[in-house]
Amino acid sequence: MNTSTSSSATPSEGKTPPPLPLLRRIAVLATGGTIAGAAADATNTSGYQAGVVGVDQLLGAVPALSGVARIQPEQIASVDSKDMAMPLWTTLAQRINALLASDDIDGVVVTHGTDTLEETAYLLHLTIKSAKPVVLTAAMRPASALSADGPLNLLNAVTVAAHEASRGRGVLVAFNNRIHSARDVVKTSTYAVDAFHSPEIGALGWVQDGRVEFQRSVVRPHTVATEFVIGAKWPHVEIVASYAGVSRITVDALVAAGVRGIVVAGTGNGSIHASMQQALADAVSQGVAVVRSSRVGSGHVMRNGAAADDALGFVSAGSLNPYKARVLLMLALAAGGTGAVALQKVFDTY
């Protein structure tokens, strides 16, 4: 006779399953922009109002976020990024630093307009004092548009911010499935959804369907490795451009207005029309810092290549475009940098 007893119990019956790991908490800070824009109909991708869709509505359009991270939303501003200004930069940087100083926040995503995203990203890259991920994203089509690109960009940005591999890489930009360094990325199209590239050395990596892969590292110092901090005062720095037949009127007017620095968007390798070059040399003699960049869009400006920088007292922006060069010059001047030699060291470093 078979005396064995049968049982339907499984080995795990009666045992409490191990708890699932908590998703990382990501703060999503909204500032406005096209990603939060709305138009009268779904086919209008240019005649829209930016920054009218709130952060809760942006997040509500991406239900998949609940499986990626625990989201802490916050509306910082509701502006068209063409109107970005230094007081908002100060507010944004200080808020990000405060959030990242908390053990309750693992990373930050910033939704932003595309027009000045590269400037804001580079500013944060130099002034955020944490190794935790900070990722900016945006959209080329408003939230109301047919095939709006904002929801997927937002999902990818949160995915990158919640990924361990993003830590310590400085401020990142997630756009159209690519991950860019804030130092390298620029807007390259007025309309295409593939509008952001890093033209000189390429993207850092990519994000797709929840997978994040980095293919190169960030070499230059950033975030916790810089001496720059956000303060209450921003030095007055402007940008001028060199072109056929340019006069010295703009430079002379800026000097008279009391600017502390001028970035010139030169031709080619940062070359400057003779009349403007003389005006800029005169500006240096009056204590104004002058940085040579290029209007070309990629490449780098060699020191003493197109102008005798040592003799004129000019600084080379290297591979920074004029707009990012302005950001770095403002921060360097605010930190007490003076003179072409000291400023050139800053531009060679960052």
From TrEMBL:
Residues 1-20 are annotated as: Disordered. Transmembrane segments: none annotated. The keyword Phosphoprotein does not apply. CDD domains: L-asparaginase_II. GO terms for molecular function: asparaginase activity. Residues 236-347 form the Asparaginase/glutaminase C-terminal domain. It comes from the Bacteria. The keyword Hydrolase applies. InterPro entries: AsnASE_II, Asp/glu_Ase-like_sf, Asparaginase/glutaminase-like, Asparaginase/glutaminase_AS1, Asparaginase/glutaminase_AS2, Asparaginase_C, L-asparaginase_C, L-asparaginase_N. GO terms for biological process: asparagine metabolic process. SUPFAM superfamilies: Glutaminase/Asparaginase. Residues 25-218 form the L-asparaginase N-terminal domain. The active site is at residues 34, 114. Belongs to the asparaginase 1 family. NCBIfam families: asnASE_II. This is L-asparaginase.
